[in-house]
Amino acid sequence: MIEFTFWDILRNLIFATRWTVLLSIAAFVGGGIVGIAILFLRISKAKWARRFASGYIALFQGTPLLMQLFLMFFGLPMLGFRIEPWTAAVLGLTFFASAYLAEIWRSGVDALPRGQWDAGASLGLHYIQELRLIILPQAFAITRAPVVGFLVQLIKATALTSIIGFEELLRTSNAINNATFEPFTVYGLVALIFFVLCYPLTQYARSLEARAAAR
């Protein structure tokens, strides 16, 4: 057993937390970009596009995230693609996040009255201009609370990437625990770090919900 002081454990966990934060940001930004593309297909006038988007969303919402990560990390190399744990983690979480974000934003679009579309048409705007100038800004505004709430879930989901070898907070804590045999201290600190990351976002989401309800 290796001797670690409390501060040694805490310092190593905080150092590992940066990778959890970076992975969360990368997956959220990537998921947002892909999610907008899926949203366009989901609300498209073309039937094939709506069906593709619906199938995409159903696939990533209806299968375990861990299985998706396994397919990225173990499946892609069998097709000839060499992939590192970081890349597999980002890709897996990006596709996972995109499905949920697209559906959240679609609910925002559906919540808008038909008159918003008609107003855009009366101004001579074509479909893309209507989306960019009228529909999407309002849809994004009214779905801020669920988007922030999903970000909390995404941060916690990064812990699953330890299974494919990505050195984030949970994998580092497992290594420290194996060296120190102090599970209560190590995992208690991990829980505390996740709480510090997620609690402010949870409170922010609640404040957004309260603000929206007051309007």
UniProtKB/TrEMBL annotation:
Keywords: Cell membrane, Membrane, Transmembrane, Transmembrane helix, Transport
Subcellular localization(s) per the UniProt record: Cell inner membrane; Cell membrane
Domain of life: Bacteria
Transmembrane segments: 20-41, 53-74, 86-105, 141-164, 184-202
UniProt keyword annotation of Transport present: yes
GO molecular function: transmembrane transporter activity
UniProt-listed CDD domains: TM_PBP2 (cd06261)
Gene3D superfamilies cross-referenced by the UniProt entry: MetI-like
ABC transmembrane type-1 domain location: 17-205
GO biological process, one term: amino acid transport
Topological type in the membrane: Multi-pass membrane protein
Family membership: Belongs to the binding-protein-dependent transport system permease family. HisMQ subfamily.
NCBIfam families xref list: HEQRo_perm_3TM
Protein name, UniProt field: Amino acid ABC transporter permease
Organism: Aminobacter anthyllidis
Taxonomic lineage of the native organism: Bacteria, Pseudomonadati, Pseudomonadota, Alphaproteobacteria, Hyphomicrobiales
